[in-house]
Specification:
Rossmann fold; 6-stranded parallel beta sheet; 44% helix
Length: 352
Amino acid sequence: MKRETELNNATAKAKGQVAAAIENAGVPEPDTRLALYRSMLACRMMEQRAYDLFMQNLIKGTSHLALGQEAIAAAFGEAMRKDDYTFCTYRGHNHTLVRGASMTGILGELMGRDCGLLRGKGGSMHLMSVEHGAMGSYAIVGAHMPIAAGAAWSAQYRDSGQVAVCFFGDGTTNIGAFHEALNFSAVWSLPVVYVCENNLYMEYTPIGEVTAVENPGADRAPAYGLESILIDGNDVDIVYAAASAALDKARSGAGPSLVEVQTYRHGGHSRADPGKYRPDEEVAAWMERDPIPNYRQRLLDAGIDEATLDTIETEQAARVDKAEETARNSAPPPLEIAQTDLWADGSSTWRN
């Protein structure tokens, strides 16, 4: 009974912990703000280049870009510890990049080249870099949420201090795995942070047309004993404060968080989607809230020298050029690796 009372008291205290930390967060240090700007730019430039390569037919199949949503990946990438875990969706290029994965490896993977993170066998929708804690992009909606809970359970069992961060779209909130993972995580007080990237549309359908609550993540959090957290996903300072607070909470043993970040993708669901179902005035309004030029102006207003920002922009542009050049010159994966990475022993030959 004593242990149960202590746990209940700790849980109650933690319920408002993240919201209070966000409200009380000051302005990040200048070096942190420059790192956030650098990271957002790298994400934007890499994905813009990926779009160009797709239009040149150098990226096959499809790809799902997060142009406009860079503040989320950048903020969490900056706030996370190197040994933390990231789980993301097929819209996961940026989440993989910010963990330290090679830009060359990402573009090479998208182009199906041997220099890719998975030697060209995974493609756009299945990026992974275990050495950087990027534990995979999952094409099945919601499938990664219980897996993230499992990784968090492992960290809890090992008392490693690691946190699993799981990113997903607003449509995932209507999938059974969303509710199962949240329930399990709350019951076991797991060190996991669930991040709902609400860009208002599931694929082509507005989330509001098929969901009983206005905020699909934040309004459902209290059902699992979690605080309701709803933030501006295009303000990287706010996202950084939320990420830091949720990570600290999880690392302290106070359990999981569900953070809903409101954002907007600049293009359609995928490169095959022109996104014409979205009202023109809605698109225009969100384009005005583009996180990168708005943050650049904020940094200038804060007294950061424009030459410093120009240098960052030049460096990132050169980085993308070099990554593309290397990927273009890389050979396709050799035929002999076609049967590897399929079974536990590394090959399917034992079945034949």
